[in-house]
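Q: For a teaching session next week I want to show students how multiple molecules come together into a single three-dimensional assembly. I've collected the sequence lines for a complex. Could you give me the predicted structure tokens for the whole thing so I can convert them for display?
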Amino acid sequence: MDELQKTILEYVKKEYVDEDSDTEVDFETPLISSGIVDSFSMVSLKTFLEKKYKISIPDVKATPEAFDSVNKIANLVTEMLKG
Amino acid sequence: MAYPTTIRDAMQGTIEEIKAAGLLKEERFIHSPQDAWIEVEFPKGAPLKRVINLCANNYLGLSSHPEVVAAAHQGLETRGYGMSSVRFICGTQDIHRTLEERLTTFLGTEDTILFPSCMDANAGVFEAVLNEQDVMISDRLVHASIVDGIRLANQKVKYDSYKHSDMDHLEEKLKENMDRRIRLIITDGVFSMDGDIAKLDVICDLADRYDALVFVDDSHASGFMGKTGRGTHEHCGVLGRIDIITTTLGKGLGGASGGCVSGRREIVELCRQRARPYLFSNTMPPPIVSGAIKVIDLISATTERRDKLERNTAYWRKGLTEIGLDLKAGESPIVPVMLYNAKLAADVARDLFAEGIYVIGFFFPVVPKGAARIRTQLSAAHEIEHLDMGIAAFKKVGAKYRILGKSKKEIIEMHGG
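A: Of course. Below is the structure for the complete assembly, covering every listed component.
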């Protein structure tokens, strides 16, 4: 789980946080509700997870709530990996 | 049972939530034509107040221009009030074709199709042109109408996005999508909230390198960006290299309504065959088409108005900077005064209105959290004395809130982020 969280955190920082920004992101930082990731750009994250972990996240599971922190995303990926 | 109390209460509950979050939008009633000076009733029922308008998209000051008004009258007299039909049944007049041709020449493209609005153009174009083999790669700060258009097309077309104006990130996304038939790069020309300009020269070079098409919404640029006002593509030196331009006739180009898709001939033809807002709604009515043709005549004959807008923008930026306000850097006539805190933005806008200056505070979710601002917009209708009055009012109100000469950090320490 730790490795999973770290990978997701690294991706979120690279994909959504500007290099010159003072925004800090950790495992619990709200992503969607804080505006760091908006629902419009969330699709990049979903695509990354599906490709990296060879899973398919159904739209009904890919909700803003389920994507609202690195920990929540890691939980979702774990659930998908279990099938 | 058609509209039971439970439903009414639920709707009212949602409105109360919007109000409690401080996001309720209220209209101000303007009792005069759109211009540098307007007469405003606000709040509802209050006596009329004459104020300088610094928040309209009336960039070229043509909204109430006598020649445009006269042309609209003539259109009304000679072609009537409405069409009572969509374009392809019996809703196309000769003047629709004329306006499309005039826009094509002005924008330097191959062909143009009118839409009822640019919102409709953006809602219809992606679905009409792209298919499941393609990908839309969009800047993350594009206008809401593009977001809606992408969402509609995303039922069948793959979508990805890049960090705002981050050309390295865009290049990564292009590389990731080389297996697609069409890679469509999607951006605004001038971004509406920050007033910054897309790096269209770099974008076009990337498009060449990765065999991509380029889409630009130039609504906040058509008529004045670039030396002859063609738009952001002229400003960036890429005339003829943009595949799809959408723009509005509801801002600089007369400010009434209407929009268009202009670009490669086959793309425009596909919109004529498939774009749903074109197929299933009436187009622009005759008086507005006639007025818009006059607008293109006026701005094709002389660059006087866009030159004046450029001078006004420089004067305004210099004036606000000299009194110590924190501005977003840029060259467009959108000049955001950064206040960072939502309540501060609302308070400053309210006090400026009392001083006779009409501006609006913008805050989350319209702009990112901690980036609240007052977006000021210049017009060729403004005279220097209007701008001097605006600068004096900003100085007075800015002093009251102790924000003059203060950095972002100091404003946030004082008022919160």
